[in-house]
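Thanks for the sequence, V.! I ran Serine/threonine-protein kinase 36 right away. Repeating your input here for the record:
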Amino acid sequence: MEKYHVLEMIGEGSFGRVYKGRKKYSAQVVALKFIPKLGRSEKELRNLQREIEIMRGLWHPNIVHMLDSFETDKEVVVVTDYAEGELFQILEDDGKLPEDQVQAIAAQLVSALYYLHSHRILHRDMKPQNILLAKGGGIKLCDFGFARAMSTNTMVLTSIKGTPLYMSPELVEERPYDHTADLWSVGCILYELAVGTPPFYTTSIFQLVSLILKDPVRWPSTISSCFKNFLQGLLTKDPRQRLSWPDLLHHPFIAGRVTIITEPAGSDLGTPFTSRLPPELQVLKDEQAHRLAPKGNQSRILRQACKLMAEEAKQKEDQNAGSALEQEDRLSKVTPSTAPVPGLKATPQESSLLAGILASEMKNNWEDWGAGEAPRTSRENHINLECEQGFPEPRPEAMGRQSTDVVDPENEEPDSDDEWQRLLETSEPGPVQLKSPLTLLCNPDFCQRIQSQLRGTGEQCFSVLCEAVDGNSWAISKAFYSSLLTTQRAVLDGLLHGLTVPQLPFHTPPGAPQVSQPLREQSEDVPGAISSALAAMCTAPVGLPSCWDAKEQVSWHLANQLTEDSSQLRPSLISGLRHHVLCLHLLKVLYACCYISERLCHILGQEPLALESLLMLVQGKVKVADWEESTEVALYLLSLLVFRLQDLPSGMEKLGSEVATLFTHSHVVSLVNAAACLLGQLGQQGVTFDLQPREWIAAAAHALSAPAEVRLTPPCSCGFYDGLLVLLLQLLTQVQGKPGLIRDVAGSEVWTILWHRFSMALRLPEEVSAQEDDLLLSSPSSLEPDWTLISPQGMAALLSLAMAIFTQESQLCLSHLSQHGSVLMLTLKHLLSPSFLHHLSQAPQGPEFLPVVVLSVCKLLCFPFALDVDADLLVGVLADLRASEVVVCLLQVCCHHLSLLQAELPIGLLTRLALMDSASLKQFVNTVATSSRAIISFLSVVLLSDQPLMISDLLSLLTHTARILSPSHLSFIQELLSGSDESYRPLRSLLGHSENTVRVRAYGLLGHLLQHSMALRGALQSQSGLLNLLLLGLGDKDPAVRRSASFAVGNAAYQAGPLGPALAAAVPSMTQLLGDAQDGIRRNAASALGNLGPEGLGKELLKCQVPQRLLEMACGDPQPTVKEAALIALRSLQQESCIHQVLVSLGASEKLALLSLGNQLLPNSSNRPASVRHCRKLIQLLRPTHST
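Predicted structure:
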C-alpha cells in the first residue's frame, strides 16, 4: 500500500470495497479493490487467485487493466484502471440509447470478446453492470470473477455461472456450453440498450426459463433492419446456429469498427475460439458435450423449484395446524422444535444457480439464506448468485426473529418489545439468587470498589460525550462547554479536585503490605479517567473547528488555575507526566492550556521538574503506554514553549541530537513532523545538530509520501507539514555555498513529492492534481485548502524554499514552468486564483501571509522572463499563463488584496505578460471594461502615487494598449487620464512628474491617444495649462522626454482642427528641435512641422524659417529616415502658396535634383532610400505648371 494514495470509497459489495486512489509520485488515478480474506473458504480464495491470474495477462483498450495486486494480513488488494461509471447507470437514468451509440458500444464489446476468446477465455457474466465507462466515451469490460481460461483439452463447460436475465438457453437447460454463451449475453445487452429492457424480462423464475427456452424475441419497429439482423444472429437459441466467429466480425452492423488486438500466442494455447475448429476437433467437442449432457428431459432448475414450492406449502399447513397448541404451551415451556422450518437440504448435484435464486425469491421468513450480495436495483431482480452455493440448513434460532448473521445491523430495527421481554426473562431473580447480592451490598470493600468503578466509568462516558459534542454544530459545542463554566461548573471542579486528591500509591514502598493487582489497577483507573476527561475537554480535535472557540474557554479557565501560585493543580499535573497511564492525557491538557496562555508557557519554562519530565520523554527515559503519541505531544509542547519564550528553557540546548535522531530514524510520520517542528525552533535559537543531507532528504521524502496522520494541531495554528518546510528551508539556507547539494535536493524525489503533497493540501480540482498531461486549470477549485496540512505560514515557507532552490538552479525552474501541465505551474496558477485567495484571506494568519504568498508566486513566475530562454519555450509558458488568465488574477489580487506598496511586482509581471502576448492584453482590457469601479479606482490611485516604477509599468501597459487595440477599447484610458472630476489632474501630474521615465511614457501614451481621441484634443484646447504642459516637454533636458513630446505634438497637429491655431506656440520649439543631436527627435520635429502646414500656420512657419531648415535637412542630414521625414514635411508645406514661393526662390528643385541624382548613381537599386520617391514628387510639385 505504500505505493498508493487512497482517496475515497466509490463502491461496496459482498466482495469488499472499492476505493478511488492515485499512484504515488504520479498522476495516475486507479481503482483499488479491497477483498477481505476473513470468512472466505479456501475455494473462494483459489477462485480469487484464478481471477487475478486471468486479469494479469489481459491488455486491451476495452478491458479493465489490472495494474497491480498484492496481499496484506487481512485483505487481497487488486489495483485496476479507474473508470468514470457503469453502463448500467446510463440505462437507469436514460432508459435506452440511440442506435448509433449502441452500434459504437457493440463494436467495443465485440472487440473485447474477440480478444478474450482468442485467448480461450470465457467471461461468463456479461451484463451492463460489468461494463464500465472510460474517459472519452469508451467502455471497458470488467469483473472476471466467473471467467474461465480453458485448456486445450477442454471444449465445453457445464458449471452454471452468470446472471439469469442474460443466460443463454443452453445454460438455463444446464447443457454443456462454449464461448457462444458470451455472444448470447452480448445480444441481450445490446437489445436492452436499444429497447430499455432485456429481451426476456420477468420477475418469475418459471416464466424466465420458459421465455428463454421457447419464446421468440419481440422486435420493436424503431430498430433498423441491419441492427435487427445482427441481434437475431446473436439471440439464436441453438448455439450451433448462433452468429459466431469469424463471421461475426464481418456483419455490416459492426464491420470495420472492431479493433483487433493480435498478440503472439503461446505454443500450448491451442486453437482460439475465434477460429473455426478443424473437423477432427469439432468431432471431439461434440463427443465431449454429449458425454457431459444431463440425463433426462426436465431441467434440474425447474425440478428444484417445484420441490421447494411443495415444501413451502407443507410448511404453511403444519404451522396452521400447530398454532393453537403452540399458543397454549408458550407460557409454560419453550420447545426447540416449535414451528419447525422445513429443511432445505440439497445435494451438490441438485444445487444450481437458478435454484438458489428461487430459494432467495421464495424464502419469506428463511432470513439466514446465503451470504450473497443484496440486490442493487430492481433491474437485477435478485437474480445473481453462484450455483455452487446450494441451500443452507436453517438454524433453529431463525424461527423467532431475524438472525444478526444475515441481517445488516445498521439497517435492522430490532423489535424492542421482544428484546425487553428476553432481558426480563433472563434477569428475573429466583428465591435462591437474592442472598449473594445482599451479602455483597453489606460489604464496605465491595461498595468502595463499585463506587470507584462507577466513578471511573462515569468519567469515561464524559470523555465520549465530549467527543460526540465536538462533532456537532457550533451552537451545541458552545452551549455544552459554556455550561461547564456556569451551570455545570461542579463537573469541572470535581474533575480538577479529583486530580489533586492523593490516590493509592502507584508503587508500593518497600516493607509496606502488598496491594493486590486488581485493586492496584482499580486505583489507577480513577485518575486515568479524570485525566482523560480533562484532555477531552481541552484538546481541539483536528478538522472540527466548530468546537475550538468553546474549548478555548475551558482551556483558558484551566490555564488560570494552573498559573495560580497557591494551586495544587500544577504540581499534581506535572508529577503525573512520568506516570505510564496519565502521561498522554496530562500532556494534552498542558499543551491545550499553553496554546492559549503565554503566561503559563513562561511559568513552565521555569519549572525544572516539568522540563526534566518533557526532556526525559523525548529521550525515551520514561516508560509510557502510548510512547509515540506522548512523545509527539511533548515535542509540540517544547516547540510551543520555545516559540512563546523566544528563548531556550534550561537543558534544551542539549536536545538537538536526540530530536534529530527522531527526525531521521522514526517511521511514524506524525512523530517525524513533530521532531522537524522542534528542530526548526531550536535552529532559530542557534542550536546546532548534525544532520547529513542524505539522511534529512530521505526523512523528508518519507514524511511527505506516507499518509498524513494528524492527531494534534501543531503550535501557533501551524499545519502538519509546516515544521518540516521551515526546517528544510533552514537546512538549504545553510548550504547556499554548495550548489551540488542544492542540485541533489532539486533532482531528488523529495522535490516532486513535495509539490504533489502541496497540491493535495490545496485540494486542487481533480483534473489538475491527478492528470498532468493535457489539462489546464480551466476553473479554480471552490474547495477550501486543508489548513491542517499546510497553513498560510507553511505555504510561505514552501515558496521561499522554491525561491532558494531556483535562485541557485534557475534552469530547473525553467524546466518545471515550461513543462505543459506540470504540477508546479498548476499550483502556482492556483495560488493566484480568486477562490484560493478568498479562502486564504479567511484562514488563521491568512491576511498576514497572503501578500507573502502572492509576491513569492510572482517572483517564481518571473524566472522565465529573466533568463535567456528559447523562444518556443517562452511561447509555451505564455500560453499556459494565458489559458489560466493569470493577467486577470494579478489585476484582481492587486485591487482587492494588496496594498499599493505590495502591488509593484504583480503590476510589473502583468505588464510583461500583456506586452508579450496580445491575448493577455485583451484579457486585461476586457477585465477593466467589464469589472466594477474598483479596478478603475485602483489604476487611478497607481497613476497618482509616489511609486515611479509602478507608474512607469502601468503607462507602458496603457501605451501598448493604445498602440495595438482599436479606439473602441481605449475609453477607460481617457477616463483614467481625465480623473473623476474631468480636470485631467492625473495627466497633469504625469506630464510634470519629477521622474524622467514617467514623463517619457506619459508623453508617449498621450501621443498614441491623440491619433484617435477627439475628446483629448478638445481637452488640450479647453483645459487651462494642459497644452502648455504638452509643449513644455519639447524643451525638456532629457532627450527621451523631448522625443516623446515631439511625437505627441506631431500627432496633435495632424488634422488638428480647432486646436490648430493654439499649436502656433509650438513652432519655435519644434524648429529648434530640427537641430537636435538625436535623429529620432529631428525626425519627429520634421513630421510635426509638416502636420502644422495645413492648419493655417504658414506665417509662423516662415517666421521661424522652417522651409529653409527642412530643405537643409532633406539635402544634408546624415540619417536617411530624417531626410525622408523632411521631404514628406516639405511636400505637405508646399501646398501653402507662400511657402511654395519661398521654396522656389531657394532653388529647392535644383538642390533636390542633385540629391536625386546622387541616389540614382547607387549601383543597386534595392539600396536606394525611400526618400528618392518623395524627392522626385516634391521636384514635380515645385515646377511652374503646378504653381499655376
